[in-house]
Structures are given as structure tokens and as C-alpha cells.
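A sample copied in:

***
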Amino acid sequence: MGLEAPDDATVYRINARQAVVLTVDFFPPIVDDPYDYGAIAAANAMSDVYAMGGEVALALNLAAFPADLPSRVIGEILRGGAEKVAEAGAVIAGGHTVIDNEPKYGLSVLGLIHPKQVLTKAGARPGDAVFLTKPLGTGIITSASKARRARQSHLEAAVESMKALNRHPSHIVREVGARCLTDITGFGLLGHACEMADAGGVGLRIRVGAVPVLPGAREYAAQGIVTGGDARNREHFGAKVRFADGIDRATNRVLFDPQTSGGLLFAVPPERAADVEQQFAASGLAVWHIGEAIEGEGIEVVP
């Protein structure tokens, strides 16, 4: 599984029982705290392995730091990444660093999976229940923070959400027999939902009232605070999305908002929907039933 399908990571089959999952991701700081930045970047990079149903085994640091960046700051970034990888039960086995004027950090990640257990964006069928595991709004809130307009409590909630691993949610998704799976990152909920709909040859109906949103995200969106990715997502996916009357502009912006280390989006047969909610609740994890797959194509957003 590689370039022929727009999935989250490459999968290479070694034999009938073993395959490796490979991905890479890195980006400039989105928060001021260096430890949090490192942890978020690591969680985000590992998420694509979980989005294929795999388990992370090894990671390599990818770093670009200014020559005058204090060693204490560099150490905190790397510590944040290392502790998040350790939390995933994996190992950082080295990496590579270059000098650059703008800091950048992330991981190349190697995961393991059985070839018959790979989950992709394809597979949803009409009637399937669609679930999301994290609230939206990280792009809007971090943009508000950069503009010094975000409340500290709102930023802290966004940081904790971004630092949360998708590892155990991915375990549950496999156990309940999900038909398809992806994670919500730069294309936002609507962009990644479009990918899932296109790959499965179905439409998706999203009930906006059921979609979780981080505290403050709608408030800042109403003030016009968005990321640059908002416009790109609208340009690329907007023609595939149909909004019902009465959905306000702020909510519209949240749905297109690019996410960093967002949650998992997956579909299960309707008879397994109750199992999803029960297993997530038993594990102390949040999950939201945000819609269903339907006949047709594209995305319907309804109240």
C-alpha cells in the first residue's frame, strides 16, 4: 500500500503474517512550550500508524534547529518527543538534525501490523455509524494563541488533546470491527471525511450538533481567527460538501479547521455502534457518534 491510494501511511508486506507501516511527519512549533511542542509533534507523527490499525515499534527524530537555539530548549523538545514515544511502548533509535533558521521537529515512524488487519480509508457502507474520538478546534485555538487572544484554559485543553495518543482508541476500533479508519489532521474533519467517502464510494452525513468542539474554538472562529489551511481546505473540498440551512459561519469554520494530532474517524456496521460506545466508556475514553454513511457521494452537514 503506497502511492496508489491516499491512505495515512505506507504498508509493506514482509510475509503472510507480518507487515511494516512507515510514515513521517514534522512541523514548526505551534505552541510556545518546548516540551509540549515535542510531545505534540511525536503524537501527531505516530498517529498515522494508529490510523492504519498498526502498533508503533521504532521512531527516528527529525529535527531542524537554529544554531543559536539554547540547548535547554532543544533538550526539552527532544524530551517531549522521547517521553511520548515511550508512552507508546516504542523506542527512539536515533535520528538526524540539521541547522535551520526556523525550528522544526517530528518523527519518522515504523509500525507493525498483520497484513489482514490493515485498516484503510475505504470500506464504509450505507447505514454504517461514523464516530470521532477527539474534539475539533486545535488549529483555531493555536492561531488565537499566536495572536495573544486565546484564554490560557482554552490553550491548555487544546494542548492536552493534541498530546493524547490515538493508540488505545485504535485498539478499540480494531476490536469492534471497524470497516474503515483515518485520523483528522491537516485537511480538517470535512476534508478527511471526503477522503473516506470517496474511497468507500459512499456519502457521509454529519450531524453538526453531535460533533465535539474544544472550548473557545467557536468563539475565536466567530472573531475570524482561522489558519491558512482553512482556505486551502475549502478550495480543495468545498465543492463536495453540502451544508443545510441554519449552520452558522463559526461552526462552518471549525469543521474545515486543520487539526494537529486530531482524533480518529471511523465507520462501523450499525449493529456495532453500541459496542463502540460501551468499549470506549469502559476504557475511560471519549467517543462521539457524529453521523452515518449514506447512498451517494460527498458530505452532507445537517443540524
